[in-house]
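Aim 2, interim progress: modelling of the NAP-bound target.
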Amino acid sequence: MGSLANKVALVTGASRGIGRAIALKLGAEGAFVIVHYAAARDRAEAVVADIVAAGGAGCIAGADLTATDGVETLFAAIAAQLEPRGDPPIDILVNNAGIGMGRDLLSISPAEYDAVFALNVRAPLFVAQAAAQRMPEGGRIINISSVVGHMAFGGGFVAYGATKAALDYMSRSMAATLGPRGITVNSVAPGATATDFLGDAMQSEAFVASMAATTALRAVGQPGDIADVVAFLASPAARWVTGTRVVASGGTLL
Ligand SMILES: NC(=O)c1ccc[n+]([C@@H]2O[C@H](COP(=O)([O-])OP(=O)(O)OC[C@H]3O[C@@H](n4cnc5c(N)ncnc54)[C@H](OP(=O)(O)O)[C@@H]3O)[C@@H](O)[C@H]2O)c1
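Predicted structure of the complex, ligand included:
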């Protein structure tokens, strides 16, 4: 039996990339996993099928988290899925859904700024607020931030980096609020990781090599590298870890 048996986990943006790997890992550890998606319903269903094929269980829940009523839509979908299962609490929330925004001071538009803050900052705050209402003692919130939140990288991520710094701040603040209820909150900060996130650039050997060269371990991360860290923070073994930021980047720019 895995370390997360009888737990319910919600992973946002779990249809692909890092979120998918986290969903598979938490499912393999025994959690019932709610696989959230925005548009890619088929992919989310495939993730649940993979969890089930590995002996686990889960369901999908769709919502555009940039929409004003996105969090309401998400929790209505979750309620519909969990009600037949006896309406269990949500033990683990992984706020993973996020978009990149490669713009510097001179090129970013107000609309781009609003879009990246809506998904990367407003959504995790209000998803956590809603999840906290049904999270028991021993609960876990894990926010996926980025090394970019604390590194300027030449100025090309003026808003994206700010969203991730904001998310790290929110992790500490949430940890203070929820600690008395026995709930831990932490950030996990990946470095460059092989997903759709970096677009076609990941198809370029030269780009991958240049990213790998920025790390001490001389590689680009794989989604599973991040999922293993999240699974630890979600497990009972991490009960004394809260309000912190774990960097999982192979040692970026040491
Ligand atoms: N990959 C990296 O190099 C890297 C590095 C550091 C940090 N991160 C962070 O890691 C997290 C996951 O990134 P990833 O690389 O796995 O990205 P990804 O492969 O692009 O996946 C993004 C996920 O977010 C969901 N999403 C997109 N727009 C959404 C919206 N409007 N509402 C709700 N969900 C939405 C997508 O759902 P659909 O599939 O349904 O569209 C998808 O599941 C992000 O927070 C990112 O900032 C990534």
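The first helix runs from residue 17 to 28. The beta strands are 8-11, 32-37, 57-62, 92-95, 140-144, 184-190, 245-248.
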